Amino acid sequence: MKTGARSSRLGRTARRRLGKAVVYLLCALGSVLMLIPLAWLVRSSVMSLGQIFTFPPEWIPSPWRWENYPQALTSIPFFRYFVNTLVILVPSVLGTVITSTLAAYGFSRLQWPGRDIVFGILLTTLMLPYAVTLIPTFLLWASLGLVGTYWPLIVPHFFGGGIFYIFLLRQFFMTLPKELDEAAIIDGASPPQVLWYVIVPLSRPALITVVIFATLFEWNDFLEPLIYINRSSQHTLALGLAEFTGLYTSQWHLLMAASTVVILPVLVLFFFAQRYFIEGIALTGTKG
Amino acid sequence: MWGILFVAPAVLGFVLWQLGPIIGSLFIAFTDWRLAGTPQWIGAGNFEKILAEDRLFRKSLGVTVYYSLGSVPLRMLVAFALAVLLNQKIRALPVFRTIFYLPSIVPVIASSMLWLWLFNPDFGLLNSILRPLGFPKLQWIYASDSVIPALILMSLWDIGPMMIIFLAALQGVPRQLYEAVEIDGGNAWHRMRHITVPIVTPAILFNLILSIIVAMQTFTQAYVMTDGGPNNNSLLYVLYLYRKAFEQSQMGYASALAWVLFIIIAGLSLFVFRSSSRWVYYGGR
Description:
Number of strands of chain B: 2
Order of helices and strands of chain B: HEEHHHHHHHHHHHH
Strand order of the largest sheet of chain B: 1-2
Distance between the termini of chain A: 53 Å
Number of helices of chain B: 13
Strand content of chain B: under 5%
Structural class of chain B: mainly alpha
Largest sheet of chain B: 2 strands, antiparallel
Radius of gyration of chain B: 23 Å
Radius of gyration of chain A: 26 Å
Helix content of chain A: over 70%
Number of helices of chain A: 14
Shape of chain A: flat
Helix content of chain B: over 70%
Largest sheet of chain A: none
Distance between the termini of chain B: 32 Å
Oligomer: heterodimer
């Protein structure tokens, strides 16, 4: 009887080990599938065109043509596009984080009549198709004569910065104990002081999350610059990369080098800040 | 009244960039507005033309629905499967989570370039792997009948946010529930069917709605990779709308197109929400 019990326990641990092995195997398989396109990208970016066009394909570049990178970066004004991207990105992110913080504070920790109804109305825009607002917004900027400038890409971010960020920050603010505000108010602090000296210092992770998401969004944005920017000297990196396809249709090595350069900054950002990505998304999803 | 002051920018932004444009869009949709000229009120003319005689409208709507029907369920399935994998109490979870998420941060313009190259029939990655396995030389985005399946395949690469939302929901499933099933003699399938899936239904609803909205408005991939081709077989709806508005300057017509899409998306969302009372389970919270 004793041995029977032991063997069944052995069977269970064996089965658990097997289960774990299967999980690891599937994770490894998934990882390969996710990473192989990126490996192909990097491999192609340091190959000669001759080696790219061989069949069956080779995985290891020989020689490693690092000069693809300077060549790709000088064939269109990459540095200028980079600066242009930052000129749009920095004020946009700043506007987003400031005004979404203000709004989230007003929607979570201050009492005023109609607060939750107004928030509910704003929340519906999360599901509003952008296609509907695209044209009238463009016509509005056109009537102001500002199409072809960066204003249409920057100014809207100073008006709340998008409900997604307000929602995310509000979710976070609501987890902070109410007694903090009350104590500060009793000590004579005004709401702006409470926000600045109490809420903001405690909310650094959430604020960083907003900065990261907004930065990523601006870096990746394609449609808005496409619509509002018409001179190529004003192009952003995303537009510059699109321009590349037209110019160098079959120069895959240069195209891949250029793409790698555009991907690299967000990759670095992701590695340093992935905790904020994961927690930020989880925060919006679980209670939504 | 501090509260109103604090939310004022956001509310003003809502009026200026959401509410105002929606109303404006509806108005513009009933006009003939070439960008250079003044708008002419033509009543329901645009809508009549769209519904009665615009073959490209029908084509693009069909293409978009085809893409969404393939992309939405498959993306949800892959994201859910990966989340379940990550929820198996393995030590290397952060590593795999990072890897699975990684493709999702790649800018869509760069991933479009990359996949354009992966899909290359002669020297691309996909055919390089498949042809030695005995597959024929697939044309991917370069053939009418495979362009949308190819774009659907590409959409499975960036499911990171969805996966994280599923994972967060899975981690909220109380352990005792699983133990209860085990005591009753249930197996892994029973645990999945009767505990895991019901408890993550709110996350399924959230992901479903948002991914429908995203899929129905996919633009950049088609604009950059296929330009709607071949034979308009990847003329996604927003690409068609973009051409009407920003290449042909038909603002009125394009606004009408936008409203048709808006109504379709709103209808779909409403349908999903209505049905959700039957399949979404809100537990203790």
